[in-house]
Amino acid sequence: MITIVSILLALAMLGTLGVLFAGMVGLARGQDGAKSSTLMRYRVWLQGISLALFVVLVLLMRG
Any stretches that span the bilayer, and where are they (predicted)? Predict the structure, then answer.
């Protein structure tokens, strides 16, 4: 179970990083505000999922 949660956590963190970089590249190229807002929402969701998975992983490792 710990392995599965660790893999999911890594994927969520990589997804967050990817969306963050996509937003930065789009900002540098001058993309529209609607797309930037959508990417920001995705980033926040992925960060929340990462944090929740991290908490689950810590709880699994404790007990």
Answer: 40-60
